[in-house]
Amino acid sequence: MTATTTAAAPGAAGAVDPIVRVEHVHRTYGSGRGAVHALRDVSLDVRPGELVAIVGRSGSGKTTLLNAIGGLDRPDEGRVLVAGQEVSALDERGLVALRRDVVSFIFQTFGLVPVLTAAENVGVPLRMRRTPVAEREARVALLLDLVGLGPHARQRPGQLSGGQQQRVAIARSLANSPRLLIADEPTGQLDTETGRAVMALIRAVVEAEGMTAIVSTHDPVMVALADRVVHLADGRLVEG
Asked: What Gene3D superfamilies does the record point to (predicted)?
């Protein structure tokens, strides 16, 4: 692993404990000659407040790594820790709490509820958390303004463009003030210009909300906006 993919050693002067620590993770799908080695001995630290871009060809292991970090998949070997919790050892209740209170996701597919307005979609995580109505409404209004969609609060997904729908999804991902944002190819369904705007928005909201973000992307704009770039090839971290 390269120096560009690791945090300062624990105990080093001025070191900050990583919010994400991936230790010697392996993940294989299938067995025998048909086995796919999605991750091979991957180790990675991500510091609080970083925006890290994970790049690599399709099939390089990017999504598998994000899923392991976010608790959507479990490694066959190794450990994943997020905010001090060993994600790879949590039971289902622990994983639900992690995804409710610590980690949030943005996917290529926006995942909005078609019958709900933009504001109602953003408010779903707050409803699940039973946030008081006044507090919920204020948070939703703040987030829609943050992503530039305040005037569209009452519109449903079918009335919004693809870029606007992704902005709603971003606002929803921020509803519970997560410490870690995981985005898997968030501009994969958007045109180039809209994708650039969404990438810049992710950079802006990470700074505005004071969170950490890990984004898998093919987009050179996101790479340019990232604090650090991690390269994956055939399930391994590589140079360059």
From this structure: P-loop containing nucleotide triphosphate hydrolases
Of 49, 42, 31, which is closest to residue 88 (Cα–Cα)?
Answer: 42
Low-confidence ranges of the chain (pLDDT < 70): 1-15, 239-240
Cα dihedral sign, 29-32-36-42: positive
Judge contact between 27 and 76, C-beta under 8 A. yes
Radius of gyration of the chain (CA): 18
Neighbour-count burial of 168, counting CB atoms closer than 10 A to its CB (0-12 exposed, 13-18 middle, 19+ buried):
buried
pLDDT digits (tens, 9 = 90+) for 175-207: 988 999 999 988 887 888 888 888 888 888 888
Q: Provide the CATH topology of domain 49-72+92-238.
A: Rossmann fold (3.40.50)
- Return d(Cα 78, Cα 122) in angstroms, integer: 35
Coil, helix or strand at residue 147: coil
Q: What residue ranges in 144-203 does DSSP mark as E strands? A: 180-184
40 touches 235 (CB < 8 A): yes
